[in-house]
């Protein structure tokens, strides 16, 4: 979960690669995955789609036990707000979600009013008469 990711775990990130434009997405889910390489598009085995991933510097060390690297992966499921705007996450977000505009290499990102469903571009209902 994003709330469990610390910036210390991201010290060897080199870049964030977005696979699709994130300017229209209110949030993305992020997780730290154990992956076999420092760079390149990782395999994706979740329901939904991968939105992006982190690449690591050459100084990143593999786990002694597994030989894998911890890298962030960004993703969305079919019931997330981008495809189901009136669904479960209309006015909230999953625990692991962050606003993609707050994500950069070595920075975990955070929730914002927009990611929480408080978009300023939604019409405001008229005041009661």
What do you see in this structure?
With 129 residues, the protein is an all-beta fold. It has one domain (2-102). It is built from no helices and 5 strands. Strands 1-3-4-2-5 form a 5-stranded antiparallel sheet, with no helix packed on it. The model has no long low-confidence stretch (mean pLDDT 90). InterPro entries: DUF6009 (IPR046051). This is DUF6009 family protein.
In short:
This protein is mostly beta strands.
Question: Helices and strands in order, then pairings?
Answer:
Blueprint: E1 13-18, E2 28-35, E3 49-56, E4 69-76, E5 97-98
Antiparallel strand pairs: 1-3, 2-4, 2-5, 3-4
- CA gyration radius, whole angstroms: 16 Å
Number of domains: 1
Give the topology string: H per helix, E per strand: EEEEE
Indicate the mean pLDDT. Answer: 90
Beta-strand proportion: 15-25%
Span of the ends, CA to CA: 45 Å
Adjacency order of strands in the biggest sheet: 1-3-4-2-5
Sheet with most strands: 5 strands, antiparallel
How many E-type strands?
A: 5
Number of separate helices: 0
Helix content: under 10%
Protein structure class:
mainly beta
Low-confidence stretches at least 5 residues in length (pLDDT < 50)?
none
Shape: elongated
How would you describe this structure in keywords?
single chain, 129 residues, mainly beta, five-stranded antiparallel β-sheet, 5 strands, 25% strand, elongated
